[in-house]
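quick one before i forget lol
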Amino acid sequence: MARKANAAAAATPGRFKQIAMTYKMTRKADPKVGLIVAGVGIVTFGVFLAIGFLIDHPVYLGILAFIVAFLAMAIVFGRRAERAAFGQMEGQPGAAAAVLENVGRGWTTTPAVAMNRQQDIVHRAVGKAGIVLVAEGNPNRVKSLLAAEKKKMSRVMPDIPVHDIIVGTGEGEVPLKKVRTTLLKLPRVLAGPQVTTVNDRLRAMGDLMSNMPLPKGPVPGRGGARMPRGNKMR
């Protein structure tokens, strides 16, 4: 029991420090976050407390008001912190992969299954909606990467639906902050065992990053391989 108490006490300062760091990061992108979160807490607490006085149970509603106000503040702060994080990641290579890794349970993400020299990337997510290919980079260049990867998926697993998303702010593109919502809105057509089977087959195939050829470069000794002197033609 003592060890558990000490571990909990040691973890508490770490949590507070993490919350403080998150708040500082969020405040840089959203200077009014403190006022908004505090306002939500005060209004929520005031409404519940007023109801408590109206029904002649101010103590009971006061306790409930404190709990509900705290939860409301946590929810609002979490959403604004997430929005700030998306704003900082926007346009950075690999940002979509970070979002996919946090979609939630039931989804398996494989980052960078296709890539070109210009760092246009296609990531893959597998869930009950099927296979989702998420591309980030130049919209014109990334379309060819998407088409090739989608063709490969359709050839290997023709009965599994394959969706594609291009991350961006242009027409027909999905903003980074809406990628998670877009995935969760896709219709669920696969059962749990089917998702496991798809993941196993894709894992067996391997991906581009694990099977990339060695980069081409100059061969040591510009003259190339030389024949032994004893084998020279006379």
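fyi The radius of gyration is 27 Å.
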